Amino acid sequence: MARFITAIPRIVVALLLTAAIINLLIGVFLRYVMIPVTDWLDMDSIPFTWVEEVGEMLLAWLTLVGAAIGVRERSHFTLHVLRFAPRSQAIIDRIHYALVAVMGGVASWFGVRLCILNHTLVTPGLSIPLSVLYASCATGGALLVVYALSMIVSPPPQSTDGAH
User: Fold this and answer.
1) Is 155 in contact with 93 (CB distance < 8 Å)?
2) Interval 13-38: pLDDT, tens
3) Which residues, listed in sequence order, are joined to residue 122 by a DSSP beta bridge?
4) Which of 80, 81, 86, 138 has its Cα between 20 and 30 A from that of 24?
5) CA–CA distance from 54 to each of 84, 117, 159 (Å)?
6) pLDDT band for position 159 (50/70/90)?
């Protein structure tokens, strides 16, 4: 059960990526296929302004949840210019993850505040509450805090080549 719970963010990102690809394909189809067809048949065009709104929401959620996963899996880009002793490197890594946790906390705090502030506003095309968009910041920030703290408490073993 614990393995499933830890896999939930990765499953969510996979679903978001799939939805973003489908959304993009629908947008391309409606723009480049259906507009000429409806023009040729002298019909009203099919509105597809909603594609942009859906894509924006999917991109925000994908980016912020994906960034947190990148912290946990240590897959973000790192540049190793200086070499430190393993003990010193472990201390530097903990400081690094503490700073990531602080930034995640700030992002989550302001994400929650934006959700509260904008809970009555909706998007122009689909009338989706803007708090859904800003909840991505709150959720991604909270995941950053959890994953960064987990890297402080239980860091993965250091690799021998100095790379993460």
Assistant:
1) yes
2) 999 999 999 999 999 999 999 889 88
3) 129
4) 138
5) 46, 21, 41
6) low
Rounded (5°) CA angle 156-158-162:
140
- Integer Cα distance of 164 and 109 in angstroms: 29
Question: Taking the domains of the chain in order of start, what are their residue ranges?
Answer: 2-76+85-153
Distance CA 122, CA 131 (A): 8
Dihedral (CA of 136, 138, 139, 145) sign:
positive
User: Could you give phi then psi for residue 129, rounded to 5 degrees?
Assistant: -60, 135
pLDDT band at 82 (very low <50, low <70, confident <90, very high): confident
The three-class DSSP label of residue 65 is helix
Q: How far is residue 16's CA from residue 32's CA, in Å, rounded to a whole number?
A: 24
Average pLDDT for 61-77: 90
Max CA distance (Å), the chain: 73
